[in-house]
């Protein structure tokens, strides 16, 4: 099964990349122009795989277009540029739902066994463990337009998708003796605790304060910083940068100048 899937993905990745899609990349995803030539070529193949495999659906009246699909697929595929083969490619992801702008969802907050508070919340995007990523198109474009601000909605939500599939934050949430930590759990968990302390002390941080919400959100925002502020992250958090470099098998600081 996996052999056939890998063969099929390689075939898709080797197809010629439409000129109209390349125009979308140049117009909407300026990050791509900073990649080395070999990574730009690899990205084109990954985008082909993504668009063949993943279902896109427009919500709230949004008409799905190649521009939307290619813009999102390219940013999601940037996270996978370090993969050596195509056995894995967001295997649990089934669909990408796209709203024209931030959308409102109904939420329930349980404060005790007897008290549940209901309300509404506006969201720009989210990733579900059941294999769906939801995005607001205007926020996708905004996040892609500035490649140095450390805020990219697609990077953020697809980092969550990787977390669901790899369990990237599971270990840092566990309370084990340090001697039993894997390097990833020790370093990222330690950085998370230092980050929480900095937020509590109202200190300015390179990493988005939203990362203090949970270890999962911390992983998502450090992914944004890793790809959009790599030089600064490597300077201020060298061990954390090295762990992300190993996780993503990429070195954005080598090709994305500050």
UniProtKB/TrEMBL annotation:
<protein>
    <recommendedName>
        <fullName>Zinc-dependent peptidase</fullName>
    </recommendedName>
</protein>
<dbReference type="InterPro" id="IPR042252">
    <property type="entry name" value="MtfA_N"/>
</dbReference>
<dbReference type="InterPro" id="IPR024079">
    <property type="entry name" value="MetalloPept_cat_dom_sf"/>
</dbReference>
<dbReference type="GO" id="GO:0005829">
    <property type="term" value="C:cytosol"/>
</dbReference>
<dbReference type="GO" id="GO:0004177">
    <property type="term" value="F:aminopeptidase activity"/>
</dbReference>
<dbReference type="GO" id="GO:0008237">
    <property type="term" value="F:metallopeptidase activity"/>
</dbReference>
<dbReference type="InterPro" id="IPR010384">
    <property type="entry name" value="MtfA_fam"/>
</dbReference>
<dbReference type="Pfam" id="PF06167">
    <property type="entry name" value="Peptidase_M90"/>
</dbReference>
């Amino acid at each position: 099964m996996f052999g056939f899937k890998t063969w099929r993905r390689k075939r898709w990745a080797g197809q010629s990349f439409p000129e109209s899609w390349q125009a979308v990349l140049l117009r909407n995803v300026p990050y791509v122009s900073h990649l080395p030539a070999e990574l730009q070529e690899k990205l084109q193949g990954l985008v082909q795989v993504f668009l063949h495999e993943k279902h896109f659906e427009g919500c709230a009246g949004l008409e799905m277009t190649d521009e939307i699909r290619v813009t999102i697929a390219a940013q999601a595929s940037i996270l996978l540029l370090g993969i050596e083969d195509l056995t894995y490619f967001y295997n649990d992801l089934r669909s990408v739902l796209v709203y024209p702008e931030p959308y409102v969802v109904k939420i329930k907050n349980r404060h005790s066994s007897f008290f549940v508070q209901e309300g509404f919340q506006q969201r720009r995007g989210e990733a579900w463990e059941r294999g769906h990523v939801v995005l607001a198109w205007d926020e996708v474009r905004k996040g892609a337009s500035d490649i140095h601000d450390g805020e990219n909605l697609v990077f953020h939500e697809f980092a969550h998708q990787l977390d669901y599939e790899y369990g990237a934050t599971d270990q840092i949430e566990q309370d084990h003796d340090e001697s039993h930590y894997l390097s990833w759990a020790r370093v990222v968990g330690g950085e998370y605790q230092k980050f929480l302390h900095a937020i509590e002390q109202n200190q300015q941080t390179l990493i988005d304060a939203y990362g203090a919400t949970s270890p999962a959100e911390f992983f998502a925002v450090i992914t944004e910083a890793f790809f959009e502020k790599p030089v600064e992250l490597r300077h201020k958090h060298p061990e954390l940068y090295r762990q992300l470099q190993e996780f993503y098998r990429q070195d954005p600081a080598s090709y994305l100048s500050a």
